[in-house]
Design a protein that fits this description.
The complex is a heterodimer of chains A (454) and B (270). Chain A is mostly helical and 454 residues long. Helices cover 78% and strands 0% of the residues of chain A. In chain A, helix 6 packs parallel to helix 12. In chain A, 57% of the residues are buried. With 270 residues, chain B is mostly helical. Chain B contains 9 helices and 4 strands, in the order ααββααααααββα. In chain B, 44% of the residues lie in helices and 3% in strands. At the A-B interface, helix 2, helix 6, helix 7, helix 8 and helix 13 of A face helix 1, helix 2, strand 1, strand 2 and helix 4 of B.
Chain lengths: 454, 270
């Protein structure tokens, strides 16, 4: 840790990971409900557990992004953070808003708009926190008079995240128009400005982990974000299929969203180049795993599996089926969960105050492989269930309920692989909260014990 | 390429595509009113949209294919099931479905009668949005066997003038989506009575002392049931509410010759 105030990132990571754990509980509960019958459906129905599952994801990933930014910006700008106190206050307000939203959902307090269920007061609190956050980091950079490309892209991504949240504050009487602008927030977040954030964090991590020349990495970072917007802006159109907008959005959506995988291919190539040129001998093996994992898994989940159902003549049949969560789960995990966990893993030794080479990585590696394997299994379970649903319900014309009964076995797979995944998350949390803080003690003891001849 | 060039590529590319996106958005706004029949957005439809959001419907159901995947798509439900059925269903879903038989059951949404009226108005409006004819074939909540009978798009031979063939094609078209409530298999009840053996049963009904309608032949009885479902309600647990059939009358949905064709087809079920 080069700057004392980078430690602000730690409480952000704590909140992020606690919410990640909670997200798993609601995810498993939601998956179990697919197996039915559901004895608790009258007081904790699927719509509530599912909304909490997805909202926790958004909140904790954003918390992780903010923590990552608080870690990265002082280092890049070579200065202390403008106001650590403001960062702590913002985190408090943010956590309060997040917890209020989740508890509110349990009691039916919801705006009921998919992924943007937050009631208006919560939405406003989120805007306030985002502004505090941007002000704090903006002032840090301003005072240092030093802005690197990497942090510039990161900050632009975070600022645009705040700006693109604004359309969700408006109400439209026409449901189709409401859908149209809902995607300005949701799509342009996850397939636009969040990719800027992912790209910037990836660039930072690759530079640090491989020691590759910054000039090269930042040059290609521009290409990656350029591809993101060239494909992703008009790629929004793939959410405009069959919702009551003009027909020209269909071919536009097909063409440009077919280009979206290029971004992820570019990120994979980017990581590959870094390894080829400079090797990856960095002692923080966990950070290396999560960083490369993010580059590769997002190419599969966000890139390839998005492409699988994005063409209009395919989507005509898959629209509104379990094919969508197949893509959704793997895309979110690969692109955003993994990059946040990479940042956390990278910052961890410094935050805990022990040298990277002494970082015990066994449990951490189990956490990595269980999550990667579990998510791959869940993706396959959703894919099999989705393909079955498309064929039985959409092509053959079985009823929805008969179809769901026939694809039960895949929900069993979903729950099974979900448990594996959750085990990986639990190990990550265990490592973060219990093993890492004690590591220094262990290594001191080991160092003392070593010279003693047997 | 240098960093300057790639930065230019980023800024120029993003700017160009932002401009195109905004321009298309503005153009779309000139089309929304027509595509979504904005003139049909009444106060009830807007209130119904609020009910839809407040009750978090979208986190189980899809609407226009968007939402969650735990419950059926509702884009065309108002056309498939009709107002009377939806009202009964929303008052108490467990009257029509059970977890034992169907695997899943919707929890009672606890809506007032007014809210039910509003959300049905909303779903009815949605069902008429011009959305590129999606879904390509009807998505059903339940179906005894693949959409009643055979695979493929139900289009009668172009030259056919056989009323039975035309009636069969009509039966499988949506609307009227007869198959979404009536099975053609004996003893399989989706929502309304099975239509297996309809002609034979109709002959019995018109003879029966319980029957107070005007029909004297099976054909006339079938016609009467389509145009005025309340004239005679087949006894059954879910077929009626307060003595009134939950089937919507189809006299205004179908043309007179279409009703003739449908009657001709249904009268073949001996």
């Amino acid at each position: 840790m080069r700057y004392r105030t980078q430690a602000v990132a730690y409480p952000y990571f704590v909140v992020a990971l606690l919410l990640y754990g909670l997200q798993m509980a609601f995810g498993l509960l939601s998956a179990a409900k697919y197996l039915g019958p559901d004895p608790i459906k009258d007081w904790l129905p699927f719509d509530v557990t599912k909304a909490i599952h997805t909202n926790l994801l958004i909140v904790w990933v954003l918390t992780g992004f903010m923590g990552g930014a608080y870690w990265l910006v002082p280092e890049e700008s070579r200065t202390e953070l403008h106001s650590p106190k403001m960062a702590h206050v913002a985190l408090g307000l943010w956590t309060l808003a997040g917890v209020t939203a989740v508890v509110g959902y349990l009691f039916g307090w919801t705006a009921g708009n998919k992924l943007l269920e937050q009631p208006l007061p919560v939405k406003l609190a989120i805007v306030v926190v985002m502004l505090m956050f941007l002000y704090n980091l903006g002032m840090t950079i301003w005072k240092a008079k030093r802005l690197t490309t990497t942090e510039g892209i990161l900050m632009a991504g975070l600022a645009l995240t705040a700006i693109l949240y604004l359309p969700s504050l408006f109400e439209f009487d026409n449901y189709t128009v409401a859908i149209f602008y809902r995607w300005w927030t949701v799509h342009l977040w996850v397939e636009g400005v969040w990719e800027m954030i992912q790209g910037a964090l990836l660039a930072y991590l690759l530079i640090r982990l491989s020691g590759i020349d910054r000039e090269v990495m930042e040059k290609w970072l521009y290409v990656i974000v350029a591809l993101t917007f060239i494909s992703g802006l008009l790629g929004t159109a793939h959410h405009y299929y069959f919702v009551g907008v003009p027909s020209y959005w269909l071919p536009i959506g097909g063409f440009f969203s077919a280009l979206e995988p290029l971004v992820f291919v570019a990120m994979s190539a980017y990581a590959y180049q870094a390894i080829r040129r400079s090797g990856l001998a960095h002692p923080n093996t966990l950070a290396v795993h999560w960083t490369l994992g993010s580059a590769l898994f997002s190419a599969l989940g966000a890139g390839l599996l998005g492409l699988a159902h994005t063409w209009p003549s395919v989507n005509k049949w898959t629209h509104g089926t379990l094919i969508t969560p197949m893509h959704g789960h793997s895309a979110f995990f690969g692109a955003y969960v993994m990059i946040v966990l990479a940042m956390i893993s990278y910052a961890m030794p410094a935050l805990m105050g022990h040298p990277e080479s002494q970082r015990e990585s066994k449990i951490g590696l189990w956490a990595f492989w269980l999550q990667v394997g579990g998510m791959f299994g869940m993706t396959m379970a959703f894919a099999a269930a989705g393909i079955g649903q498309v064929y039985l319900e959409r092509v053959l014309g079985f009823g929805y309920l008969e179809t769901q009964a026939k694809i039960q076995v895949h929900f069993l797979m979903l729950v099974g692989t979900g448990i594996l995944f959750t085990a990986g998350v639990v190990l990550f949390l265990w490592d973060f909260f219990f093993l890492a803080p004690r590591q220094r003690v262990h290594s001191d003891a080991a160092a003392q014990a070593a010279p003693t001849p047997a | 390429m240098t960093r300057r060039q790639t930065r230019f590529f980023f800024i120029a590319g993003t700017t160009v595509f932002t401009v195109i996106f905004v321009a298309l958005t503005i153009h779309s706004h000139t089309r929304f009113a027509e595509l979504t029949h904005e003139d049909a957005i009444t106060a009830d439809v807007i209130a119904g949209k609020h009910v839809w959001h407040r009750k978090n419907c979208i986190n189980c159901h899809t609407l226009l294919g968007e939402g969650a995947y735990f419950a059926p798509d509702l884009t065309k439900i108002a056309q498939h099931r009709g107002e009377a059925y939806l009202r009964q269903f929303l008052q108490d879903p467990s009257r029509f479905y059970s977890e034992e038989r169907h695997g899943r059951l919707m929890p009672n949404p606890r809506l007032s009668n007014q809210q039910i009226t509003e959300v049905i108005a909303f779903l009815t409006w949605v069902s008429h949005i011009d959305n590129q004819n999606w879904p390509p074939r009807p998505i059903l909540v339940t179906a005894a066997s693949p959409q009643g009978i055979v695979l493929g798009t139900p289009v009668p031979p172009a030259a056919s003038t056989d009323p039975v063939a035309l009636g069969e094609a009509l039966f499988r078209r949506s609307p009227p989506a007869c198959f979404s409530c009536h099975s053609l298999q004996e003893n399989i009840v989706l929502v309304g009575p099975s239509l297996a053996g309809l002609a034979t049963r109709s002959a019995g009904i018109v003879q029966s002392p319980d029957y107070k309608g005007a029909a004297r032949t099976p054909q006339d009885y079938i016609r009467e049931s389509i145009v005025d479902p309340h004239a005679y309600v087949v006894p059954g647990p879910t077929f009626a509410a307060g003595g009134q059939s939950i089937m919507p009358p189809f006299g205004t949905v179908l043309k007179p010759d279409e009703i003739d064709q449908l009657v001709a087809y249904l009268a073949t079920f001996k």
